[in-house]
Amino acid sequence: TYAPVADVLAGKYGVNDTVTIKGWVRTRRDSKAGLSFINVHDGSCFDPIQVIALNTLENYDEIIRLTTSCSVSVIGTVKQSEGQGQSIEIDAQSLEVLGWVENPDTYPMAAKRHSIEYLREHAHLRPRTNIIGAVTRVRNCLSQAVHRFFHEQGYFWISTPIITASDTEGAGEMFRVSTLDMMNIPHDEQGNVDYREDFFGKETFLTVSGQLNVETYCTAMSKVYTFGPTFRAENSNTSRHLAEFWMIEPEVAFADLSTVAKLAEDLLKYVFKAVLEERLDDMTFFAQRVNKDVITRLENVVNSEFVRMDYTDAIEILKNSGKAFEFPVEWGVDLSSEHERYLAEEHVGAPIIMQNYPKDIKAFYMRINDDNKTVAAMDILAPGIGEIIGGSQREERLDVFDRRLAEMSLNQEDYSWYRDLRRYGTVPHAGFGLGFERLVAYVTGVQNVRDVIPFPRTPGNAQY
Ligand code: 4AD
Ligand code: MG
Q1: What is the reported pTM?
Q2: Which of 248, 286, 360, 455 could be joined to 434 by an S-S link, Cβ 3.0–4.6 Å?
Q3: Can you tell me the distance from the alpha carbon of 131 to that of 446, in angstroms, rounded to the nearest whole number?
Q4: What SS3 state is found at 230?
């Protein structure tokens, strides 16, 4: 067995205890006094541990050839450090080299500053860097905190399917799943593909959202959520869009929009607190190297009430802002990212819960308000990134729902199981979707969602 570096640095071993650590060399510095200082990291925390190797070690000639990313196993004595910058170090009794780095001069992750774009091109090696290591620990901390939050509040985690036949968002941005032989696709006389010959006997896709499926469990289990991968064939080459991203989608029965707006606020505050408590090492790095405000802005969010604003009022604010927006503002338009950013960054300076959007720019399942023009929808807009959450109260009234389907030229039969939820014991219910990568980007201050997911999928890029 061996000790995680995090445990040794946290003082879980006594001074003069013998421990084994295993990891990768970050840097090596030799002293004229006949010893070497080797920083070893193993991913368990931000800081590497300093190992001191004396030239009396039998393989000292090997030790002075160690370079960045060589893997090592060290048996040594825990010492209070006399040097600056670390409290605990290890005096090596022995150091075994497990794996050399061939040709250190051309090693792509040599210890120097690389641009974030360069790291993205080496996605298989970038987890070894400070920044991606920190992102990975924060991402993990956030996902554990999400599950803990819902568990503590009595929610059930529902595994919704990845292969689906329905287009939840109705935006036609779905990836098709098919086993048909592309060279020999069965089709009718007009050239329409005959999906009866396909694996599932019908046309299927990768899910864009687990919402419709999780609504079925909501109308039986009351408080549920999904947390899984979702897919969008949206041709958006931006810093906040991925073709494959993870989404957290709670769905709550006997609830209206204000219930889930509060739930979203509580969830964000809970996970931010968890990161501040558990990953201050990584957050300190982000504050020093990525965005100096990342810690203070999380603290401010945790300690203040979210601003709630109606879409209609936001339009007035944008019109009166005196700003020349690229996309003109008038009631009925969808807010573009420049609008969202103006509102969250300049007007409010904190996350906003934007509510009651025009029905024509929102999905078919959202509940129509009494004005017949708007729906009980909400988006949460965060400074620096824009929309991180989209949600709504769902239309639970069958007659209203059917009128809406007809208005949008959608086919009742395609929604027969979804209509059943309204036919048999319908209840008011509401939910939202939190884009996990946008959350991680907001928390870490990392600008591009491609750098907060291990293997980003974007238009034209599916490496690995
Ligand atoms: O606003 P959206 O499309 O809402 C839904 O999918 C609802 N069915 C959710 C629900 O009510 N259960 O997506 C929700 C969130 C967005 O606010 C955004 O954070 C994220 O998912 N998102 C993306 N993240 C990365 N890349 C993309 N292409 C994304 N599209 C949406
Ligand atoms: Mg949305």
Answers
A1: 0.96
A2: 248
A3: 9
A4: strand
Strands 244-253 and 18-31: unpaired
Contacts 24+ apart (CB under 8 A), 151-155: 153/223, 154/223, 155/223, 155/224, 155/225, 155/250
120: part of which helix (H) or strand (E)?
helix 116-121
Residue 6 confidence class, pLDDT cut points 50, 70, 90: very high
Distance CA 449, CA 285 (A): 18
Q: Identify the band that residue 192 occupies on the pLDDT scale cut at 50, 70 and 90.
A: confident
Q: Which residue ranges have their beta carbon within 6 Å of ligand 1?
A: 168-169, 209, 211, 232, 234, 241-242, 245, 247, 249, 387-392, 431-433, 435, 437-438, 449
Give the pLDDT of residue 232.
Answer: 96
Residues comprising the chain, all counted: 464
Residues, CB within 5 angstroms of ligand 2 (ion)? 390
The pLDDT value recorded for residue 84 is 73
Q: Coil, helix or strand for 441?
A: helix
Q: What percentage of the chain exceeds 90 in pLDDT?
A: 88
- Asked if residue 376 lies in contact with residue 362, where contact means CB atoms within 8 angstroms, the answer is no
Query: Cα–Cα distances in Å, from 397 out to 104, 394, 400, 423?
Result: 66, 9, 5, 9
